[in-house]
Structure formats: structure tokens, C-alpha cells
Amino acid sequence: MNNLNVSRIEQFRQLKSTIRGNKNILIVGIDVSKRSSVACITDASGTIYMKKFKFLNSVAGANDIMKKALSIKQSLIKKDIVWALEPTGNYHKPLAAFLLRHACMVVGVSTVAAKENRKSLDGRWKKNDPKDAHNVADLVSQGKMFFYNDNPQAQTMKQLLKLRQRFAKELSATKARLRNNHFALFFPEIDGLYTDISHPEVLMLLRHYPTAEDIRAVSFEQFQSIFRHRKVSRVSQQRIYELWHRAQQSIALPKIPSVNIEIKSTLELIASLQQQITSIERHLEKICSLNPAYRRLLSLPGYGPIISATFLAAVGSIDCFSKASQLTKLAGLDLEYVHSGTFKGIAKVSKKGNSLLRYKLCSAAIYALNNPTIRSLQNAYLTRRENTSQNKAKFRIKLADKLLRTAFAILKHQHSFDMDTFLNPVNQSLRLST
């Protein structure tokens, strides 16, 4: 991270510790929409200097609001200006980048915090642009804001990960259509033989004999010959015979002329999506390989290339965080509970953070269980409790958070993962209240 960004983090931390009740700092809360935005200019004492200033999302519009804020700052002899935005899809990003290029202090406010705070402003649910802009400014006056990270490498990785996720969803949907549409009609008995419908044997089957009727038309020797170019194991041989045998007594519909056209286009789509995903992963690895933090993350159990890249894209620089609990909140792995009088509620994961990061961290915990040492920790945990799916899920969440905190430690101290160090406190931390 460059020195300018380090300076911004230091300024942000100082701002957050001194903002409450500070009348010397002007707060510009902005509600961003697609074509235009609305600004509300206040200070931390709650005084409103401009309730509504509407401007276009253009260079001219951004210059207008900057001139207006600067004019108010000079007339009131304020010390500084803070620009606050609530993340709104991608619409806020060009404005934030423009302000940062002009050396403005830009911060963000959580959409969850904005939703809750909106009710406290007028006691009702009233949502409109001026009120939302005032709501954003009010949150900043309370110190409820986060550092707006403009790390270009992290932004590039985020876009690539979003693209990969989109292609992966399309691939899953395509495979689901094959299973629930094509095979359900023309070879339903194949279900149960393959967990992954894009298995090489299934793809080979679709290219040569896409329906049970096609398989019935050939002998087993002819059917088996299409798989001979692959190294076929004993299990695969039995599965191939089972395919041919099930086709002989299949309840499938007769083949129709459109099948070959549909299968050809579907196979081309699967190949294209797989190629696109592989290409994106190569680009991600190329970008990440230059980052020492990436190599340290790969040393963690369960942290593969995509999970490590997701971590870096969401976190940006570890210097943005002063303690591990901030990362836990970012991922939405922090616990929420309700205690009132003698009533004590059950602690639940808040799920209020970055959903993709949380999903990948939980996946990392599952992959980490392939490590015999960590699996033994799960066995010991379940021995003290009932061996239920609920307790297994609790352990995985606790393990995901533990690995996240370990990632924070190794990046802060710039060293690789060490299992002995990991095991020292883990037996104490992997205990959940029942």
C-alpha cells in the first residue's frame, strides 16, 4: 500500500476518534442514485447548513457540490470537510473516485446502519433522497462510518471475482437444466450415477449417445468404445456397464429431432463457461502472485487461490484494520444475541457483512477439515457434545472465524502459518455456548 493511502487511514482513524460533537468539521452526506445525487451539509453537532443540494452525476455536477461545500466551509471557518456516501451498487464509485482524486476525505456508511438510523431520525419509515442524505451525515456525526478503500488492485480483483461468480452461476444453471430437463425426459435412470453432471463420462455420453434410445440402438462393445481413449478405472467400467444396462429398460421418451441441436449448443456453452472461469482464475493468480500477503494466506489450511484472492479483494490492505474482530464483522461472522432479564437468547451469526467473503471463509473451514489435525479437533469438539449436523455447523463457523483471525495475525506480523502456534489457543476458542 502506498504512503498516500497509509496517510488516509491515519486521517480516518483520527477523524473517527474526534468526530462526535466536533463543530469544526463539515459533513457532506450524499445519497447517490443513477443519474443524480442529493447532498445534505451538516456538522457533528447536528446543525444543518444545507438541507438539500441536488447535482448531476457528472464532472460539472461534482464540481458544483465541491464548490458549494468549500464556500460554506470558508464562510463558517470550518477546519475540514468529510464526504460520506452509502454504497449503492456501483453508482457511488465514480463520484467517490472523483472526490479522492481531489484529495477529499471520503468515508462510507453501512447500509444496515443506515436502515436502522433512518427510523431514529423521525420515528417512522420515510425514505426519500434528502432524508437519506441527512441520514448518512447523521451516521458520520455519531462516528458510525468505515474507511473507503480505493486500492486499485483490490478493485480489479473484486471485478474479476464478480465475473467469475457470474460465470459459475451460469455453469451451475446449465448443468441443472441438463439434469432436470434433458435427462429427466430422455434418460431419467442416469440420476444417481453421477453427482457432477459435467463429469467427462457424461459429456462423452452426450456427444455420442444423448438419449437412452441411442444407447439401446448399439451393443455394449460399441457403447464402451467411446470411453476407451480415457484411462478407465474398475469403478468407471462398472458405471459404464450400469449406464448401458439401465438404458435397455429405460422409461425415457422417444428421441425427438431437436435433441441433437440442444445438446450441441449446451456442450458448447459448458465448454465456453469453463474456459472463461479458467481464464479469470489465471488472471487472478497473476495479480495475486505479486502480493506477499497472498502467499502467506495460501499457507493456511483450506485457503486456496480463490479463497485467498477473495480475502485480499474484500480486505484490501491489512493496515486498514487495527484488530481481528473488525475482520470478523466485515465477514458477518460476529455473533448476535438477545439477553433481557433472566432470558438469555441463543447466539447467532449476524450475516451482516460481505456475503461472498463469508461464504468463502466457511468453504475454507470445510476444506481445512481435510487436514487430519484439524479434523481431530472437530472430533474432540463433537465428543463433548452430540454429534449432530447443528454442532458440526457451529464448529465450522467457529473454525472459519479462527482461521480468519489467524490470517489477520500472520499478515500483520508478516510470517507464514504455523500449526503449533495455531493449536495453542484453538482448543479454548473452539468452544461455543450451548
Write the topology of this structure:
Elements: H1 3-18, E1 25-32, E2 36-43, E3 48-56, H2 59-76, E4 80-85, H3 92-101, E5 105-108, H4 111-122, H5 129-141, E6 146-147, H6 152-186, H7 200-208, H8 212-216, H9 220-225, H10 234-248, H11 258-288, H12 292-298, H13 305-315, H14 324-331, E7 335-336, E8 339-340, E9 343-344, E10 348-349, H15 355-368, H16 372-384, H17 389-413, H18 419-429
Parallel strand pairs: 1-4, 4-5
Antiparallel strand pairs: 1-2, 2-3, 5-6, 7-10, 8-9
Helix pairs in contact: 4-5, 6-11, 6-13, 11-13, 12-13, 13-15, 14-17, 15-17
Outline:
By secondary structure, this protein is of the alpha+beta class. Helix content is 60%, strand content 10%.
How would you name the CATH homologous superfamily of the largest domain? ATPase, nucleotide binding domain
- The end-to-end distance, rounded to whole angstroms, is 42 Å
Shape estimate: elongated
Using the coordinates shown, work out and report the CATH topology of the largest domain.
Nucleotidyltransferase, domain 5
Which band does the percent of strand residues land in? 5-15%
Largest sheet: 6 strands, mixed
Number of helices: 18
CATH class identity of the largest domain: Alpha Beta
Order of strands side by side in the largest beta sheet?
3-2-1-4-5-6
- The CATH architecture name of the largest domain reads 2-Layer Sandwich
Spatial extent as radius of gyration: 28 Å
Total beta-strand segments: 10
- Alpha-beta content class: alpha+beta
Q: Give the helix proportion (percent range).
A: 55-70%
List unreliable stretches of 5+ residues. 426-434
Q: What integer is the average pLDDT?
A: 88
Q: From N to C, what is the helix and strand string?
A: HEEEHEHEHHEHHHHHHHHHEEEEHHHH
**Total domains:** 3
